[in-house]
Design goal:
This protein is of the alpha/beta class and 196 residues long. Helix content is 53%, strand content 14%.
């Protein structure tokens, strides 16, 4: 089974591209979606996060805004959060692989935003980066609810810059195009990987 890592900085269109892979029948493990499940009421991450960041849990679920205020820009607090979340994500990833293999899939996508930052490139066979010009990225991100320029800059500061990601990746998916053109790039990549 070929593992394709899908990455890209915030606002580059990674979620949209992930949906395109799904539309083509390719299983996609979405690390961000898994984190949302862990943070939800009854999620496996709620109690461990409450133990470390009690002010971040409200009504038995993790309040992402409160957690963000605690950890963004504070490397020590980020490391504490990662120590809680990464083992839980690892369990979910293992279950995803088992299911995909049992279903006979030859290609799966791991949507991991911080693949280069966390050494995740060692867990995949190939990497595709989703990319767009910086001005497009900034406009997309600042259009999000609850996003500020300061928060955006703090997030960018923790990410490998786009130029380096493009250089280190095996494939680049340019999202500064129409949806149809982006989808054509995804289809061509899937065909190339399945034919290999």
């Amino acid at each position: 089974m070929l593992l394709l890592g899908l990455t890209g900085s915030i606002g580059m269109g990674k979620s949209t591209v992930g949906k395109m892979f799904r539309k083509l029948g390719i299983p996609v493990y979405d690390a961000d979606a898994e984190i949302h499940k862990l943070y939800a009421k009854g999620g496996a991450g709620v109690e461990p996060i409450r133990a470390v960041f009690p002010d971040a849990v409200v009504d038995d679920q993790v309040d992402r805004q409160r957690l963000s205020k605690i950890v963004v820009g504070n490397e020590e607090e980020i490391k504490k959060l990662e120590a809680v979340i990464h083992p839980l994500l690892s369990d979910g990833r293992a279950a995803f692989f088992e299911k995909a293999e049992a279903e006979g899939h030859h290609l799966v996508v791991l949507d991991i935003p911080l693949i280069f930052e966390t050494g995740g490139e060692d867990r995949v066979h190939k990497i595709a980066v989703v990319s767009a010009p910086a001005d497009v990225q900034r406009a997309r991100v600042l259009d999000r609810p609850q996003m500020t320029a300061e928060k955006f800059e703090a997030i960018l500061a923790r990410q490998v810059d786009d130029a380096e990601k493009r250089e280190r990746a095996d494939f680049v998916i340019d999202t500064h195009r129409t949806m149809e053109e982006t989808f054509e790039q995804v289809k061509a990549l899937v065909k190339r990987l399945q034919d290999a």
